[in-house]
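Example S7 (structure tokens).
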């Protein structure tokens, strides 16, 4: 997103791939970005001028319908069950586009598989047990003090929106 002062407020352009997909004026450029991030991926893609092919919409539906983080392969299996002619490259391209536009986040957990999560469902972190692979969700605020320490002590503005912290869960600690 680019924001430039304009006579009517701010001129905001959302850059998508190699062209500018959308331009408008508003009083606060962040309001416009937040507006798109609070939309579903399908609505945001449509608002930015992207084609909503049936295959792309099935990928978005599978992503949003998941009650957990989902891998490209899991999305592909769901889409393929409804549309057997879909290619896994369509799933990867759609997820890459959504990531590029800031609509999904990705995380690699202990199994080495990259999983995806829609941004509008909120930022959070994960505690991953190294023994039993149990995953416990952690609110974003849990790492606020770490973010402050990194900025104050190391002058690093860290992106701590979606992290995995590895250790032993209470049950596995008791077994040890």
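Recovered sequence:
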């Amino acid at each position: 997103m680019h924001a430039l002062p304009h006579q009517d407020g701010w001129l905001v352009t959302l850059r998508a791939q190699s062209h500018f997909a959308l331009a408008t004026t508003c009083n606060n450029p962040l309001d416009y970005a937040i507006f798109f991030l609070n939309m579903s991926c399908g609505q945001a893609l449509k608002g930015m001028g992207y084609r909503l092919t049936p295959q792309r919409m099935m990928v978005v539906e599978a992503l949003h319908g998941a009650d957990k983080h989902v891998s490209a392969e899991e999305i592909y299996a769901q889409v393929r069950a409804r549309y057997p002619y879909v290619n896994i490259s369509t799933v990867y391209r759609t997820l890459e586009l959504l990531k590029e536009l800031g609509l999904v986040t990705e995380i690699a957990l202990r199994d080495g598989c990259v999983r995806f999560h829609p941004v509008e469902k909120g930022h959070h972190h994960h505690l991953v047990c190294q023994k039993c692979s149990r995953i416990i969700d952690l609110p974003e605020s849990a790492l606020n003090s770490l973010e402050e320490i990194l900025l104050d002590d190391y002058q690093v503005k860290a992106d701590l929106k979606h992290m995995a912290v590895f250790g032993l869960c209470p049950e596995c600690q008791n077994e040890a």
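Notes on this example. The CA atoms of residues 98 and 104 lie 6 Å apart.
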